[in-house]
Amino acid sequence: MLLGGDNNNSSPFSRPSGFSSFLFLSFLLSFTTFAVCVRAESPPSSSPSSSPSTYSPRDNYLIDCGSGSSEQTSLDDGRTFKSDHESSSYLSTKEDIETSVDSIPVKAKSSPCPSAYPLYRSARIFTGESRYRFFISQPGPHWVRLHFYPVPHSSIKLTDAVFTVQTDKFVLLHDFSIGNTTSLVFKEYLINITGRLSIIFKPHKDSHAFINAIEVVSAPGSIISDAASTVAPRDTFTGLSNFAFEVSYRLNVGGPLVTPKNDTLSRTWLSDEAYNAFPEGSEAVSVEPKNVHYPDGGATPYIAPNWVYASAQKMKEAQVMQPNFNLTWKMSVDPSFSYLIRFHFCDIVSKSLNDLLFNVYINEFMAASSLDLSSLTNALSTAYYKDFVLNATAVKNDSITVQVGPASNAQSSLPNAILNGLEVIKLSNEAGSFDGLFAVDGTYKGDAGTKMKIVAGVGLLMGVTAIVFLGIVFVRWQRRPHDWDKRKSFSSWLLPLHSTKTSFLSSKSSSRRSSLFGSRKSKSGYSGLFSNQGLGRFFTFTELQNATQNFDENAVIGVGGFGKVYIGVLEDGNKVAIKRGNPGSEQGINEFQTEIQMLSKLRHRHLVSLIGFCDEQSEMILVYEYMANGPFRDHLYGTNQPPLSWKQRLEICIGSARGLHYLHTGAAQGIIHRDVKTTNILLDENLVAKVADFGLSKAAPMDRGYVSTAVKGSFGYLDPEYFRRQQLTEKSDVYSFGVVLFEVLCARPVINPKLPREQVSLAEWALQCHRKGILEKIIDPVIAETICKESLRKYVEAAEKCLAEYGVDRPGMGDVLWNLEYAMQLQEASTQIDHPEDKSANLIALDKPCENLSREDLAVAVSDNSEIAAGSSLFSPVGKVRGR
Ligand SMILES: *[C@@H]1O[C@H](CO)[C@@H](O)[C@H](O)[C@H]1NC(C)=O
Ligand SMILES: *[C@@H]1O[C@H](CO)[C@@H](O)[C@H](O)[C@H]1NC(C)=O
Ligand SMILES: *[C@@H]1O[C@H](CO)[C@@H](O)[C@H](O)[C@H]1NC(C)=O
Ligand SMILES: *[C@@H]1O[C@H](CO)[C@@H](O)[C@H](O)[C@H]1NC(C)=O
Ligand SMILES: *[C@@H]1O[C@H](CO)[C@@H](O)[C@H](O)[C@H]1NC(C)=O
Ligand SMILES: *[C@@H]1O[C@H](CO)[C@@H](O)[C@H](O)[C@H]1NC(C)=O
Question: Which Pfam family is one of those matched by this entry (predicted)?
Answer without folding.
Answer: PK_Tyr_Ser-Thr
